[in-house]
Amino acid sequence: MKQIFKTDMDKHQERFSMPLNQIKKMEMEEVCRSESKSTEVKLVELGLEGGNVHQSTMRLRRWQINSTVSYVLTSNWNDVLDRNAGALKVDDIVQVYSFRRDRKLWLVLLKVRDADR
C-alpha cells in the first residue's frame, strides 16, 4: 500500500515511486539484475476513472539515491494520470500487486481509499 504524493502527480516528474520500505514482496529481481536497472512491465489499472480496466506498458526502474532505494514506474505514467484525471489525487491510498504471466512481470494498480476519507 502506498499514499500518493505530490511528486507522483507532478507531470514534470512523470513517475510513480514505490519506496523499498513500502514493498512487502514484489518480484524485483530482474530489475536488480539488469544492467540498466530497468525492465518493461504491464500495468493494469483497476478501480479508477469510470470503473474501467486499462492496460499499459511501462518501465519499472530501480533508483538508488544515497542509501534510499525506490522502484519507479516511468515512461507512460502521465498517460495514467490523464486517463484517471480526478480519480487519483494526492493523499489517496493505492495498492500495487505483482504477478507473472508468460514469465513477464505485471503490476496491478488498485485504488483503496480516497484522500478525504
Automatic annotation (TrEMBL):
Protein location: Nucleus
Cellular component terms (Gene Ontology): nucleus
Record Pfam families: At2g31720-like (PF03754)
Source domain of life: Eukaryota
Signal peptide stretch: none
Alphabetized InterPro entries for the sequence: At2g31720-like, DNA-bd_pseudobarrel_sf
Residues spanning the membrane: none
Annotated GO MF terms: DNA binding
UniProt KW DNA-binding keyword: yes
Keyword line: DNA-binding, Nucleus, Transcription, Transcription regulation
Protein name: TF-B3 domain-containing protein
